[in-house]
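2024-03-11 09:14:02 INFO worker-7 job=invfold-0412 stage=load source=structure_tokens
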């Protein structure tokens, strides 16, 4: 296989790391993810990752239960740092040189995010894991993925889902008649609220003409297929 993209950003949710338990980090799951990411880099693609913290705490959920929204979001950012360090460890066990860049300054465990430094790491063939979202409350890691992809000039965002093989007209688990799309525009995703990413993130992708592919990463080999240009999942963009 040959890579169809020079530089990609993979968006992983924290929930994916938990596996069937729904909480914490599954060593089996994170090892498989690291192996899949390693297969992508072996194609010659420069690889960066944004990871969420939902397996530890979801800021918006905690806020809905009475916690101050800003405090809950900062907790979520720190949860994503935990996940980034776990992913770094798994990637390095697979032989991939990895750097964690955090939007929150935590010097003992991660480099502070600097755009030029991130680009330089990518140019040197290192996997870059972006942690702590945008560093600001009220913004999701979806928005962080769109922002970082635009900043480092990634060619595409790969939204890695678990058990969901693309974008549907409705939740396929609740509506058997839900239709799966092969391709949708940014405007259609926003107007129909198709839940590709949050609305802010999609608008940012539209502004920067940054395409998105939504695919099921729980299927072995799917990530490599997407990066090699095979038609997997749903493409969002013009």
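2024-03-11 09:14:09 INFO worker-7 stage=emit residues=238
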């Amino acid at each position: 296989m040959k890579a169809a993209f020079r530089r990609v950003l993979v968006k992983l949710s924290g929930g994916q790391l938990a596996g069937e338990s729904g909480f914490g980090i599954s060593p089996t799951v994170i090892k498989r993810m690291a192996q899949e990411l390693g297969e992508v880099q072996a194609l010659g693609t420069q690889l960066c990752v944004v990871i969420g913290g939902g397996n530890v705490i979801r800021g918006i959920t905690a806020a809905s239960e009475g916690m101050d929204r800003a405090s809950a979001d900062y907790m979520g950012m720190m949860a994503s740092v935990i996940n980034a360090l776990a992913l770094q460890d798994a990637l390095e066990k697979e032989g991939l040189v990895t750097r964690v860049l955090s939007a929150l300054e935590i010097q003992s465990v991660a480099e502070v995010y600097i755009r030029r430094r991130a680009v330089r790491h990518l140019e040197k063939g290192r996997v870059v894991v972006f942690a702590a979202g945008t560093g600001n409350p009220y913004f999701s890691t979806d928005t962080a993925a769109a922002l970082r992809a635009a900043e480092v000039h990634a060619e595409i965002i790969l939204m890695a889902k678990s058990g969901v093989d693309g974008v549907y007209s409705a939740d396929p688990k609740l509506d058997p008649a839900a239709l799966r799309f092969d391709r949708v525009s940014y405007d259609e995703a926003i107007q129909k609220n198709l839940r590709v990413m949050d609305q802010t993130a999609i608008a940012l992708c539209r502004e920067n003409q940054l395409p998105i592919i939504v695919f099921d990463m729980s299927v072995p080999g799917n990530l490599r297929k997407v990066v090699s240009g095979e038609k997997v999942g749903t493409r969002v963009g013009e």
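2024-03-11 09:14:09 INFO worker-7 stage=report msg="The two ends are 26 Å apart (CA to CA)."
2024-03-11 09:14:10 INFO worker-7 job finished
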